[in-house]
């Protein structure tokens, strides 16, 4: 039994009761957690936590699993001393048992009702601890005038499974988590976690649905969570992660490799149906739809050179927009339809560029130590989000330490909104919510078998 007061564990400082010990290396701590007075008038925001903490100072860097009085279960963290707290909300309420693991630079939450059926909740993130650090149990009343008591039972503290940061054998498995992130707070929420490989979410204009690809097929799922629904695509069964939705929400565009010769672009009704071939030449990988619904933008290889092309949405003659040597990829339209953002390695590293819709005035926007891919302007025209790989990473491979970064179009300032294990499949295509407040993306997690 652990009792604690304290106003909160949030923002830039914490007040709570902490029962702890110091450790080094990677650790796993698990416990059954319950509130003995759950039917009484305790604060719904009170927290019973499994905690890893750099120090005992109130503003210390930390990560915890927080089981709230109202059933919310989140993994929360402060990346460095004095930083603001962030969280990834689980899509499971009031699990009986939780486990917090630190493996390498990543922290992860596992949930279940007993030790033999624990599963990842999704939403792991990157955080650095200096050794030694603290691990233990914590309780916060969320009310300075009260004491709250939580019961921690079957507590298990041990060395975490030894899993490399890069999967290289059959003993390692990568699972997928579809998440959303708030642009204002950078807090994240798990929509769907699966042991299968999923990729590339699109947020439907209705605000209620997200589309993604899995095993060559396209699926939809409610933003609030639930079970995915497969979209019928007739004989096409090799859809890749370059797909999207028309501005009016009625049409789906996919890039599919069922037909020999490589990826081609097709359109079909949003509910599924008979696909219509748009690009006869291959490979062609869709990335952007003009706001007026009339034109598709895509990356294509012609005579061995990857460039940006456009084509009428009904098909026809394609127009080549870029001619520079190197790889040009990831085109997406500005919301006013006057510009196209894309990524290009013509200046050395992969960087974000912008051009007019006729291909004129091609201008480089980023110039830093990262390789930056797949720019997506927000519907309100204020931001461009993109995914950043380390400077020594070639291409956009899977299973990498990556960051989602946000550029302000008002002043060009760039900030990191998420650090995660991802890469190919995380955010290849447009994934903004229609109100520009949130983004959808896929993170990945190494699992020991």
In short:
The protein is mainly beta and 449 residues long. It has strands spanning 2-4, 9-10, 13-14, 17-23, 27-34, 47-53, 62-68, 73-78, 86-89, 97-103, 106-112, 119-120, 125-126, 133-140, 148-159, 172-182, 188-194, 198-203, 209-214, 217-222, 229-231, 244-245, 251-256, 264-269, 276-277, 284-289, 295-302, 305-312, 319-320, 328-333, 339-344, 351-356, 363-364, 371-377, 383-389, 400-408, 414-422, 438-448.
Features:
449 residues, 50% strand, 38 strands, 7-stranded antiparallel β-sheet, 9-stranded mixed β-sheet
SSE topology:
Blueprint (H helix, E strand, L loop, with lengths): L1 E3 L4 E2 L2 E2 L2 E7 L3 E8 L12 E7 L8 E7 L4 E6 L7 E4 L7 E7 L2 E7 L6 E2 L4 E2 L6 E8 L7 E12 L12 E11 L5 E7 L3 E6 L5 E6 L2 E6 L6 E3 L12 E2 L5 E6 L7 E6 L6 E2 L6 E6 L5 E8 L2 E8 L6 E2 L7 E6 L5 E6 L6 E6 L6 E2 L6 E7 L5 E7 L10 E9 L5 E9 L15 E11 L1
N- to C-terminal distance: 33 Å
Low-confidence stretches: 165-171
Sheet with the most strands? Answer: 9 strands, mixed
Proportion in β-strands: over 45%
Number of helical segments?
0
Estimate percent helicity: under 10%
Main sheet: strand order = 4-14-6-7-8-9-17-16-38
Q: What is the strand tally?
A: 38
How would you classify the helix and strand content by structural class? mainly beta
Average pLDDT works out at: 95
Task: Tell the overall outline.
Answer: elongated
- In angstroms, what is the radius of gyration? 23 Å
């Amino acid at each position: 039994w652990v009792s604690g007061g304290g106003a909160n564990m949030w923002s830039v400082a914490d007040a709570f009761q902490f029962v702890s010990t110091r450790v080094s290396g990677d650790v796993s701590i698990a416990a059954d957690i319950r509130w003995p007075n759950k039917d009484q008038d305790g604060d719904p925001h009170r927290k019973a936590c499994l905690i890893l903490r750099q120090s005992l100072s109130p503003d210390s860097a930390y990560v915890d699993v927080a089981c709230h009085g109202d059933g919310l279960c989140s993994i929360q963290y402060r990346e460095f001393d004095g930083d603001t707290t962030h969280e990834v909300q689980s899509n499971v309420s009031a699990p009986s048992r939780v486990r917090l693991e630190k493996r390498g630079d990543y922290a992860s939450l596992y949930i279940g009702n007993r030790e033999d059926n624990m599963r990842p909740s999704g939403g792991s993130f990157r955080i650095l601890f200096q050794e030694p650090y603290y691990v233990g149990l914590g309780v916060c009343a969320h009310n300075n005038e009260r004491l709250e008591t939580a019961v921690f039972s079957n507590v298990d503290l041990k060395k975490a499974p030894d899993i490399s940061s890069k999967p290289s054998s059959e003993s390692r498995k990568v699972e997928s988590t579809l998440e959303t992130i708030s642009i204002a707070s950078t807090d994240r929420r798990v929509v769907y976690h699966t042991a299968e490989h999923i990729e590339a979410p699109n947020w439907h204009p209705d605000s209620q649905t997200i589309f993604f690809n899995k095993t060559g097929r396209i699926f939809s799922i409610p933003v609030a969570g639930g079970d995915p629904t497969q979209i019928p695509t007739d004989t096409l069964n090799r859809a890749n992660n370059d797909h999207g939705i028309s501005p009016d929400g009625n049409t789906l565009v996919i890039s599919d490799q069922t037909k020999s010769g490589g990826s081609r672009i097709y359109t079909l009704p949003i509910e599924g149906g008979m696909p219509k071939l748009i690009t006869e030449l291959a490979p062609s990988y869709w990335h952007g739809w003009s706001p007026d619904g009339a034109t598709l933008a895509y990356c294509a290889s012609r005579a061995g050179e990857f460039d940006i092309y456009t084509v009428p949405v009904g098909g026809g003659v394609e127009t080549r927009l870029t001619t520079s040597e190197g790889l040009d990829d990831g085109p997406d339209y500005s919301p006013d339809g006057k510009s196209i953002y894309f990524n290009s390695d013509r200046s050395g590293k992969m960087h974000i560029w912008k051009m007019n819709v006729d291909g004129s005035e091609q201008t480089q926007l980023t110039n830093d130590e990262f390789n930056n891919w797949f720019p997506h302007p927000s519907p309100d025209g204020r931001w461009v989000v993109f995914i950043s790989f380390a400077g020594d990473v070639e291409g956009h491979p899977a299973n990498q330490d990556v960051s989602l970064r946000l550029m302000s179009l008002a002043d060009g300032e760039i900030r990191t909104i998420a650090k995660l294990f991802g890469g190919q499949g995380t955010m290849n295509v447009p994934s903004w919510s229609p109100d520009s407040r949130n983004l959808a993306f896929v993170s990945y997690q190494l699992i020991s078998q």
